[in-house]
Amino acid sequence: MAKVVVALGGNAILSKDASAQAQMKAVKETAKELVNFVKNGDQLIITHGNGPQVGNLLLQQSADDTPENPAMPLDTCGAMTQGSIGYWFQNAMREELLNAGIDKDVMAIVTQTIVAEDDPAFQNPSKPIGPFYKESELADIKAIHPDWQLIEDAGRGYRRVVPSPKPLAINEYRAIKRVVDADIVPIVSGGGGIPVVKKGNQLIGTEAVIDKDFSASKIAQLVDADKLIILTSAGGVFYHYGQPNAVELKEVGVNEIQQHIDADEFAKGSMMPKVKAATDFVRHTGHPAVIGALEDVKRIIAGEEGTTIVSEDIATVAK
């Protein structure tokens, strides 16, 4: 039985319709794909992003911010979306497992991710959250929210960005391991986990959103996963993406892909964190990481789709 950590983007849960009904429908469709890992005999650990959801929740909070009903801070909004998305996934996965004739428990775990108080990311916000805005809307948005920083996000529009510190540790990793050992499917570290700074015995929430791919890599290392799979809307990894000489990678060694990371060849708001997180997992464990499309899950399991990043020893043998 292979232990597999699967990371899903927040955009796989929310597209244009931000209603709970639409997001639950999207989660149900995603669960139909994820159940294939369990059918394959894999021990599945699910983690997911929350960028669109936490940004939308912050907008709702600020729209009704009064002394009697103050808006919740970013870390608490992260916890709220972690809970709501975990609830949707818990029910959807349980239903799809039963539909497949598999009686297996599913558990969402509120997860805190420890970060460094002096992480440089706090001075350089880079994590996109919330909805996309057109360039023509920017002046109005900045007038309403003068403290926001907005950037262009991979050709899809403009979004607010917040600090995204690197995960140092997963506070609940021992509990997650026990759940996995009990053959329960856990949904963990939603939105990268609630960012907290450790001070003595205290965990103090901080205003940030952790990249879910880096958090997934950390979890995969801590639970001794055999494979990390990062599912995207774009599919596998390309060199020269969007250009006439684009090349999709099928299998690549960590040293080769590191050269392209160092050359800053991947889009910062989309593929770059995925490639970095996958490479980090491979370097620390020697196990493979796969980046591919959600709709290709069956073919990813069969080794027919996605980009597989492998240790240099395996890459050398393959050559």
Please describe the topology of this protein.
Blueprint: E1 3-8, H1 20-39, E2 43-48, H2 51-63, H3 74-99, E3 106-109, E4 112-114, E5 127-133, H4 138-144, E6 149-152, E7 158-162, E8 169-170, H5 173-181, E9 185-188, E10 194-199, E11 202-205, H6 212-222, E12 227-232, E13 238-239, E14 247-248, E15 251-253, H7 254-262, H8 271-285, E16 289-293, H9 297-301, E17 307-310, H10 312-318
Parallel strand pairs: 1-2, 1-12, 2-9, 3-9, 4-10, 12-16, 15-17
Antiparallel strand pairs: 4-8, 5-7, 6-7, 10-11, 13-14, 16-17
Helix pairs in contact: 1-3, 2-3, 6-8, 7-8
Characterization of the model:
- Pathway: Metabolic intermediate metabolism; carbamoyl phosphate degradation; CO(2) and NH(3) from carbamoyl phosphate: step 1/1.
- It catalyses: hydrogencarbonate + NH4(+) + ATP = carbamoyl phosphate + ADP + H2O + H(+).
- Belongs to the carbamate kinase family.
- This protein is α/β, with parallel strands linked by helices.
- It is built from ten helices and 17 strands.
- The strands form four sheets. Strands 3-9-2-1-12-16-17-15 form an eight-stranded mixed sheet, sandwiched between helices. A four-stranded mixed sheet has the order 8-4-10-11.
- Strand 10 and strand 11 form a beta hairpin.
- Helix 2 packs across helix 3 and helix 6 packs parallel to helix 8.
- The mean pLDDT is 92.
